[in-house]
């Protein structure tokens, strides 16, 4: 405890990276509350999860207005108060888009929803500000100038320090930067995107120019492909897993896909990767999959999803695997997975993803 009785934050062995071109330092592994916090996990177990995260170097928590219909933010706010965590020790991010009610102005990225949605999120979190506020999806029905101006207003008010995007196309992110530059305003500093060994085209190919041009940061989600890369679905869907317990259609579709030809081909790769991780690297496939995302220099933070403190602590063993990912090991992983995006081809020249020009 510090003199003013706040628990002292000890980063332990957690590396910190700047979030894109901003000055904000984020832990390489953060914790996110989709489906879990306020949904499948409520009350004291949420406190255990956040306390465990904080005590293991994770001071960044990601949530959204839509997670558990606002209850994720409510639970996080309650627990931060109960644990008496110092606000400046924490990096809290939330996201706006879906809203909580079904009125014509209750969602999307209008100036009205961005401002009202931010105020409501802060009330649920019992906080004066979040560190980063994300547009949870693009909204093509709203002029980009309105979106950029509204997020800048939120920043000017001190309700957020930075803003970012989630699941926007590269074209949309570029447009936001062009509008912000034209108006002398702040552009998005990071994209919250999916990236894992089974999903690579967008983060590695589509966004590639954005990392160089705008120093785009990434807060990566589904690094374990919602559990597929833990190997837990290798022999069917366990009864206590997300694909079995969650009611939404997307999980029924995901479970059904596992027995399709594409799903079976993916599981065969996961099985081969599991064997390689265990026999050659002395780690689990879960740790290897997480370390593989973390070692990517364009990753700012990997958002871990976990239902139990033990899962969180176990997943942090990925930090020990990072030094094992030598160029030769990374090449072997490519051979097993065969998911590397094809290079961009331009006028007979191959534009390699590291942007060195090679004759094709
Ligand atoms: N911006 C967006 O649109 C967006 C979308 C998705 C997620 N996110 C953010 O990213 C966070 C993480 O996403 P995600 O939940 O999809 O991540 P994920 O890491 O791909 O999946 C997490 C799930 O994998 C399983 N798991 C994790 N560790 C495990 C272990 N050691 N052993 C066995 N199973 C394990 C658990 O599933 P079971 O429940 O089956 O145990 C856990 O809930 C979310 O909480 C959210 O903050 C953002």
TrEMBL record:
The keyword NADP applies. Keywords: NADP, Oxidoreductase. Residues 31-336 form the NADP-dependent oxidoreductase domain. The keyword NADP applies. InterPro entries: K_chnl_volt-dep_bsu_KCNAB-rel, NAD(P)_OxRdtase_dom_sf, NADP_OxRdtase_dom. GO terms for molecular function: oxidoreductase activity. It holds the Pfam family Aldo_ket_red. Gene3D superfamilies: NADP-dependent oxidoreductase domain. Belongs to the shaker potassium channel beta subunit family. This is NADP-dependent oxidoreductase domain-containing protein. The lineage of its organism: Eukaryota, Fungi, Dikarya, Basidiomycota, Agaricomycotina.
């Amino acid at each position: 405890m510090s003199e003013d009785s706040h628990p002292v934050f000890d980063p332990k062995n957690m590396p910190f990276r700047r979030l894109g071109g901003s000055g904000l330092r984020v832990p390489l592994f953060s914790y996110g509350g989709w489906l879990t916090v306020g949904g499948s996990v409520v009350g004291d177990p949420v406190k255990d999860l956040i306390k465990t995260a904080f005590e293991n170097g994770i001071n960044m928590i990601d949530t959204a207005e839509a997670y558990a219909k606002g209850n994720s933010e409510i639970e996080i706010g309650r627990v931060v108060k109960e644990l008496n965590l110092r606000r400046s020790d924490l990096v809290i991010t939330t996201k706006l888009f879906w809203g909580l009610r079904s009125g014509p102005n209750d969602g999307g990225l209008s100036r009205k929803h961005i401002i009202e949605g931010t105020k409501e999120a802060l009330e649920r979190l019992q906080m004066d500000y979040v560190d980063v506020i994300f547009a949870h999806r693009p909204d093509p029905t709203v002029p980009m100038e309105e979106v950029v101006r509204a997020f800048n207003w939120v920043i000017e008010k001190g309700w957020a320090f930075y803003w970012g995007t989630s699941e926007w196309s590269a074209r949309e992110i570029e447009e936001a930067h062009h509008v912000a530059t034209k108006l002398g305003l702040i552009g998005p500093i990071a994209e919250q995107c999916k990236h894992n060994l089974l999903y690579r085209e967008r983060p590695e190919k589509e966004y590639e120019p954005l990392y160089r041009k705008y120093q785009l940061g990434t807060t990566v989600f589904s690094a374990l492909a919602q559990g597929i890369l833990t190997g837990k679905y290798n022999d069917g869907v366990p009864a206590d897993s997300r694909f079995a317990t969650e009611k939404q259609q997307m999980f029924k579709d995901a479970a059904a896909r596992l027995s399709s030809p594409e799903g079976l081909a993916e599981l065969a790769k996961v099985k081969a990767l599991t064997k390689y991780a265990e026999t050659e690297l002395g780690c689990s496939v879960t740790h290897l999959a997480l370390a593989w995302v973390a070692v990517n220099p364009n990753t700012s933070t990997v958002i871990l999803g976990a239902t139990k403190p033990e899962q969180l602590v176990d997943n942090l063993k990925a930090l020990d695997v990072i030094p094992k990912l030598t160029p030769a090991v990374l090449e072997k992983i490519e051979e097993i997975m065969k998911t590397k995006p094809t290079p961009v081809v331009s006028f007979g020249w191959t534009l390699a993803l590291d942007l060195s020009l090679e004759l094709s």
